[in-house]
Design a protein that fits this description.
- The chain has 649 residues and is an alpha/beta fold.
- The protein contains 16 helices and 38 strands.
- Strands 8, 9, 11, 12, 13, 14, 15 and 16 form an 8-stranded mixed β-sheet that branches.
- Helix 3 crosses helix 11 and helix 13 (445-451) packs across helix 16.
- Its main location: other.
- InterPro entries: 5'-Nucleotdase_C, 5'-Nucleotdase_C_sf, 5'-Nucleotdase_CS, 5_nucleotidase/apyrase, Calcineurin-like_PHP, CpdB_N, Metallo-depent_PP-like, TAT_signal.
- This is Bifunctional 2',3'-cyclic-nucleotide 2'-phosphodiesterase/3'-nucleotidase.
- Its cofactor is a divalent metal cation.
């Protein structure tokens, strides 16, 4: 079925009455039977099961499948017919996931707590996300092996030419139509993952599996799904929504996927945004953020960490020997609201989900509370996007310490060593509490995971001074272009630029001029070849020469091409370390017993001249701290619980 056979309907508002949800108008198919089918999506759960933030060691009403589960069960009671799907990124992303991967372990036959929780909800099918590959293929297979629901993925290919998982399947279901009669339908389901996993997890996949383009995989398999008699085809697309001309190999390909004939419904994810709605998707041709459609086809993106349940309500009408979508609505149901800047839970914890992971939850609490050392200074990330920052410096120092030791017997031992690190927890889509904040005193394992949230391993690359400069130019794309001549208030931070791509390189000194346009766009493409934001780049007190050679300590994601940074495409790697960056930080602290990371002003922002007021947002707890090397003043409250500051000069 193509998009021309779908009638657009306005998206339901969150919390609409059940009667309104299912009261889709008849569409003129006469006396033929009508089946109303509810399709539900979870996505990007990242082992967030309980409403708990292990980093802060505190309850958190904004996360958790245990809360989403209550919405799932309520949504099922409203509909005669329903299906529940998951869109990937299940087994990595919280200290609970790390506990299982690094402390408890996963043997064949073991039940991963994420799977244990999902098994209580009777999912109908799922797909793989890119983070499923972070711990290796054996761990992936062991983790998902006891799932009571199938998992499909059409674009990951093993060395023998077979897909890693079954590319698609047909769900034979008996539904009840509007007259009360039983109807047998075939629901086709196909899954996709970003093809970039071969770069991001090269060490785990090299020689074992590769990927193909998402749209190419769909065009190969969807005709076969239709030939198998599918009445409706649902795409589980762990890939986001982006505009522009299709070139192949896109990381965020859901909009292009919507053009494939034969796909009826698209469940998206990966970007950690929400759809329908979501200002990130405004003004993209083919995207209707109000109706929740991609090229006219119904689609949802259900946030992240269990924040929302995505709902697509279909009205299916008999058309000859098959069925067609006569009408639809899309909707997101959140697990919490924010009222007067406070989080208010909209649902309770599901007892069955909580019981399924009780032992692992309690073991994780014990695990993250284990001590590793102390800090004599506060470590926080409230101002990490506008000034040199101690939380980033601690990571950079630990990486350099670790790499220097491994390189001391190699030909690279005498080359100048730099270290690149980024502030991972810097608010944004994570919310006003999504910042690192560690007070002086004991440091525990939970703090290591707070400072460095990803399971990256350490790499070192050999690059030139010119590549270091371009690396920093790419990082500086996080800033909007400030226009002094325009004056007035101007936002400094580009909210669509991920904080994990704002690399700070320790060992050199430089300044950043946000009045210049960015050389690179959000995807790392050179767009302004004459622009230069990086000023006064020096090493050891001298200007960095283009042909000067450096070793830069970084992580496997960046070194392998993640983020499309100059000098990082996998060919410049000179050291592949087996240890997690987080473990290196922990060893660094254990050896020193006490750390006192200090921002030394190695980089700074140039203050724009004129009457312009440059503003940015941060968390409310930022008021307890002052950034290094820059003067800021609190302006007032900002939406979603954030606080607005201005750069005072």
């Amino acid at each position: 079925m193509t998009s021309s056979s779908i009638t657009r309907r306005r998206v339901l508002q969150t919390g609409a009455a059940a009667a309104a949800v299912m009261a889709l108008p008849k569409t003129g198919f006469g006396a033929e039977p009508v089946v109303k089918l509810r399709i539900m999506e979870t996505t990007d759960l990242h082992v967030n099961i309980m409403p708990y933030d292990y980093y802060r060691d505190a309850a958190d009403d904004t996360v958790g499948l245990a809360r989403t589960a209550s919405i799932v069960k309520a949504a099922r009671t409203e509909a005669r017919n329903s299906l529940l799907f998951d869109n990937g990124d299940l087994i990595q992303g919280s200290p609970l996931g790390d506990f299982v991967a690094y402390r408890r372990g996963m043997k064949k036959g073991d039940v991963h707590p994420m799977v244990a929780a999902m098994n209580t909800l009777n999912y109908d099918c799922g797909t793989l996300g890119n983070h499923e590959f972070n711990y290796g293929l054996e761990f992936l297979e062991n983790s998902l092996g006891e799932a009571k629901f199938p998992i499909v993925c059409a674009n990951v290919i093993k060395a023998n030419g077979e897909t890693l998982r079954k590319p698609w399947l047909i769900l034979d279901r008996e539904f009840t139509d509007e007259s009360g009669a039983k109807q047998k339908l075939k629901i086709g389901v196909i899954g996709f993952v970003p093809p970039q996993i071969v770069q991001w997890d090269k060490a785990n996949l090299d020689g074992k599996a590769t990927t193909i383009d998402i749209v190419d995989a769909a065009q190969k398999h969807v005709p076969d799904i239709r030939k198998a008699g599918a009445d409706v085809v649902v795409a589980l697309c762990h890939s986001g929504i982006a505009g522009g001309e299709r070139k192949g190999g896109e990381e965020n390909a859901a909009l292009h996927l919507a053009k494939v004939d034969g796909i009826d419904v698209i469940l998206t994810g990966h970007q950690h945004f929400t759809f329908p709605g979501g200002k990130e998707f405004n003004d993209i041709p083919g995207v209707d953020v109000k109706a929740g459609t991609l090229h006219g086809k119904p689609a949802v993106m259900a946030g992240f960490w269990g924040s929302h349940l995505g709902v697509v309500d279909l009205e299916l009408a008999r058309d000859g020997n098959g069925w067609k979508i006569a009408n639809f609505r899309t909707e997101l149901r959140p697990i919490y609201d924010r009222v007067d800047r406070k989080v208010v839970a909209k649902t309770e914890t599901d007892a069955a989900v909580a019981a399924a992971i009780k032992t692992d939850h309690e073991a994780t609490l014990k695990y993250v509370r284990e001590p590793v050392g102390t800090t004599s200074v506060p470590i926080h990330s409230y101002f990490s996007l506008v000034s040199d920052d101690a939380s980033v410096k601690l990571v950079a120092e630990a990486q350099a310490w670790y790499v220097a030791d491994l390189l001391k017997t190699t030909p690279y031992k005498d080359l100048p060593l730099l270290s690149a690190a980024a502030p991972f927890k810097a608010g944004g889509r994570g919310g006003p509490n999504y910042y690192t904040e560690i007070k002086p005193g004991p440091l525990a394992i939970k703090d290591m995971a707070d400072i460095y949230i990803y399971p990256n391993t350490i790499r070192a690359v050999k690059v030139t001074g010119a590549q270091v400069r371009e690396w920093l130019e790419r990082s500086a794309g996080i800033y909007n272009t400030i226009d002094p001549a325009k004056g007035g208030e101007q936002d400094l931070i580009n909210p669509t630029f991920p904080a994990y791509n704002f690399d700070v390189i320790a060992g050199v000194r430089y300044r950043i001029d946000p009045t210049q346009p960015s050389r690179y766009d959000n995807n790392g493409k050179l767009v302004n070849s004459d622009a230069r934001r990086i000023k006064d780049l020096t090493y050891d007190g001298k200007p960095v020469a283009d042909d000067q050679v450096f070793i830069v300590a970084t992580n496997n994601y960046r070194a392998g091409g993640g983020g499309n940074f100059p000098g990082n495409d996998g060919t410049t790697i000179v050291l592949e370390a087996p240890d997690l960056t987080r473990d290196a930080i922990m060893r660094y602290i254990v050896e020193r017993k006490e750390v006192a990371p200090k921002a030394d002003g190695s980089w700074s922002l140039l203050t724009p001249p004129g009457s312009v007021t440059v503003t940015f947002t941060t968390g409310p707890n930022a008021a307890a701290y002052q950034p290094a090397g820059i003067k800021v003043e609190k302006v007032g409250e900002a939406p979603e619980g954030f606080v607005k500051y201005r750069i005072a000069g």
